[in-house]
Amino acid sequence: MSMLPESSGLLPYWLLVVVGFSVLNTVQCYKSAQFARRTFNGPTAAAEVTPFAGRLFGSWSFISALVRLYATYHINDRHLYFLALSTYCIVLTHFAGELLVYGTLKVGKGLAPPLFVATTSVVWMITQWSFYVD
Length: 134
Known about the structure:
Number of strands: 0
Oligomer: single chain
Low-confidence stretches: none
Largest sheet: none
Mean pLDDT: 92
């Protein structure tokens, strides 16, 4: 297997970049809850973003990265494509709940990067479904 995705189009490269950032996010979350606190910085976050919660967030990021990594190299497999797309939909749902229901997020620079990546990925993957999936 080549180090870079062999499929045409830019989506596999986007997914690979996101995988890289997700792995870095995982490492940061395991080292300290401080990174998770930059994202989860709403009014109720101080009590809820513990070192355990940070590591759990890091674990979720790593699991998502593995799913997306497999999808990157098998972008034409409808099941892997759907699973990767689902990880972004779950992230958006999670962030919406944390922002609107639980109060652990607030609109700002901590929320902007993951919201941008998840929204861009969902829109891109939905609009390109027929290009990549047989």
